[in-house]
Design goal:
The protein is of the alpha/beta class. The protein has one domain. Helix content is 39%, strand content 16%. It has a seven-stranded mixed β-sheet, sandwiched between helices. The protein is globular. 36% of the residues are buried.
């Protein structure tokens, strides 16, 4: 999987960087080992901005909507590169187990806390999946901000916030804890906008 990721990175990066170069801000906030990487989401290209801003040293697994993984050939290639599907319409136990295994094995997981793209460019409400995974695996969450507007041939800033370890107030965590952490995460992402220069 690492080999496939490296090959795809080296093939796609030069073309993507030519038209939509990214500018990593505070990349040093990415910790070694397991972490949940959580950007806001406004464009289909957001995963590429994050991955290329991280650099080849960091190889995240990516949780993507099921529809993308069903595309012939593309879905197979993405799967080999560490992308896996989640069915957003129901509780996808298989995707949750895959995500937990990824984090427990010390890998990074790229996951959009809003669950879908914002059509207005404004940040939406955070879902509770990230909070649940962080509490169950003890992995830190890294908030990431990407501007909604990406100009051709201009660098798009990708701001990496400081990682934080959410804590449960009710034992191992319940719905109230998840909702509180999800709200805090979106606030942390929004607070990074002023650094996107």
């Amino acid at each position: 999987m690492k080999t496939i990721f490296g090959i795809l990175y080296c093939i796609v990066y030069p073309f993507f960087n030519l038209f939509h170069p990214s500018k990593a801000i505070h990349r040093e906030n990415i910790p070694e080992g397991a972490a949940l990487l959580c950007p806001n989401h406004t464009k289909a290209s957001d995963p590429l901005f994050v991955v290329f801003a991280m650099g080849l040293h960091h190889r995240p697994q990516v949780m993507a909507k099921e529809e993308i993984m069903r595309i012939p050939v593309l879905g197979w290639i993405l799967g080999k590169a560490g992308v896996f599907a989640v069915n957003r319409g129901k509780s996808d136990v298989g995707a949750i187990k895959r995500a937990m295994r990824c984090l427990k094995e010390g890998d990074k997981l790229l996951m959009f806390p809003e669950g879908t793209r914002s059509k207005t460019g404004e940040m939406g409400e955070g879902k509770t999946g990230v909070a649940m995974l962080a509490l169950r695996t003890q992995a830190p969450i890294v908030p990431i901000f990407i501007p909604a507007k990406k100009k051709w041939f201009r660098r798009t800033p990708v701001v990496f916030g400081e990682p934080f370890y959410p804590r449960a107030e009710n034992g191992k965590g319940n719905a109230e804890d998840y909702a509180r952490i999800a709200e805090e995460l979106m606030e942390r992402i929004a607070a990074l906008e002023g650094q996107a220069v």
